[in-house]
Amino acid sequence: MDDVYKYTDLKWRLENIPEEAAVRGLFLNMLDERAAEFGPDVQKAYRDFFKSHKFSAFSMYGVKDYLIRMTKLAQLAFGGPDIYRGVYQIQGATFPAVRRTLIGRAWFALFGNDFTGILKNMSGKWRSVSNYGLIEMSGGAPDYQLRFQDQYVYIEHAMAGSVAGAAKVCGLEVHLDVRLTDAFNGNMAVHVQPAQSLVTP
Q: What is the 3-state secondary structure (H, E, C) of the chain?
């Protein structure tokens, strides 16, 4: 973990997150899926490091463990200096991974590829997948505002990646402007980019 601590604020972050803060196991399972997508060598290194890699999707597990696993996987796949970029990419696969779960199929059956509906659901149902923090959404297409309160997973990297991944599922590209008030609180402006018009020669 030396590289992880060197290139991130994880050590400080772990000291400042309540022990009881937890997320559903589906997020931890997603990390092992992502490790496989990065190749057999990365998945083997990930599994060798953590030993356990299968979790009950609906049970709650410490968010500290999730952060350790996420940053370590980013380090294994992207290298120490690029951990935060790796976190963004890893979290970008959150919605496609959630979509394959029972709860995710229910969500997407409800909202399909409606980005507004997905953002509303992500905000309104946050406490169904974690036991901490709040996400509030305002605005509407093409400009949304997300306010994060007591969010222990990196807002500017992980949560931004999740939003970009959700947009991608909907066939959209977004520009994100994240303004933190401190490490665990901040706002994210989400601007849906206009569709590129086809230019015929």
A: CHHHHHHCCHHHHHHCCCCCCEEEHHHHHHHHHHHHHCCHHHHHHHHHHHCCCCCCCCCEEEHHHHHHHHHHHHHHHHCHHHHHHHHHHHHHCHHHHHHCCHHHHHHHHHHCCCHHHHHHHHHHCHHHHECCCEEEEEEECCEEEEEEECCCCCHHHHHHHHHHHHHHHCCCCEEEEEEEEECCEEEEEEEECCCCCCCCC
Q: Please give the average per-residue pLDDT across 3-22, as a whole number.
A: 97
CA–CA separation, 107 vs 111, rounded Å? 6
What is the pTM for the complete model shown? 0.89
pLDDT of amino acid 104: 65
Tokens 């200096």 belong to residue: 81
